[in-house]
Amino acid sequence: MIVDKLNDIINSYGENHSLKDFCIYVKDNISEISNMNINQIAEGCYVSKGQISKYVRQLGYDSFAEFKTDCKSYKDSLIRKTPLFNKRKNLTQNIYTVTENYEQCLNYTIKKIDYLKLEQLTQDMLSCHYMYLYGHGDVRGNCYDIQRELKYLDISVIILDEKLSKNYEFHENDILIVLSTNGQLFRYERRKIKKLKEMNVNKWLITCHDSLVFCKQQLYIPSNNIQYNELIMTYILNILIMNLQISV
User: Fold this and answer.
1) Which of the listed residues 48, 80, 112 is the one where a domain comes to its end?
2) 25-56 per-position pLDDT tens digit
3) pLDDT of residue 180
4) Could you write out the three-class secondary structure of 131-153?
5) What is the pLDDT of residues 126-182, one digit of tens each?
């Protein structure tokens, strides 16, 4: 995610470094960046257009357009992330309200989810030689959580690089699991989706989005409240891990 990249630079570089200044400018103006051209950003940073192109490449983007797309994706994610806590309520009231809403959402999910698919995915995870994971943005953290937990079960997990710039050699018993909570990966990263589709490996998609078409095996996580989708996704992934723990 763009903000993670910006923070890495801001935290790593000392004062009076032009790349750090660029990152601070982008972070402070990220809501407007997607509507700005390269000249406007260059003027805002007091550098040339060539320097902006250089900074964008240093952040890992192939083009200025790709950089702007990631900024727009982050901006849209902020719109979707309405705080679960209400400013007009005190801490106790907020805890009770969020817990009640989350419980209702959980009850809906566990009643509607396809348990046969859950078990089938568990078996594919158990029988694979290498498990590959891909997630973009916030859900990438879930990939690292899965990798850490499955290490204790002696299941080899590899997280694909976010840009999909590396070449991976898949084998017959490998599995690739793609995580996309609300389908933003499919909306903003069509080139990456194309690359993922072209990978010759057994694939699974795990998502709360009810109308994505990606691969033959898909685990749809039903939800009746989009605000809680990230929590529900994490819950179901933990269920998978717990099922693996008793199956090895």
Assistant:
1) 80
2) 999 999 899 899 999 999 999 999 999 999 99
3) 96
4) EEEEECHHHHHHHHHHHHHHHCC
5) 999 999 999 987 898 999 999 999 999 999 999 998 889 889 999 999 999 999 999
DSSP 3-state helix, strand, coil percentages of the chain (rounded to 5)? 60, 10, 30
Q: Are 218 and 112 in a shared domain?
A: yes
| Token digits of residue 35 | 């509507």
Structure confidence at residue 228 (pLDDT): 95
Question: Where a domain ends, among 80, 104, 138?
Answer: 80
Q: Is the pLDDT of residue 80 over 70?
A: no
Residue type for position 175: I
Q: What range defines the domain where residue 192 resides?
A: 91-245
Strand ordering across the sheet containing 131-135: 157-159, 131-135, 175-180, 202-207, 217-220
The answer on 224 and 102 residing in a single domain is yes
The structure tokens listed for 118 are 């859950």
Angle subtended by helix axes 140-151 and 229-245, to nearest 10: 20
Inter-residue contact 180 to 209 (CB < 8 Å): yes
Tokens matching residue 179? 């995580």
CATH code (residue 221): 3.40.50.10490
169, two tokens:
């050699």
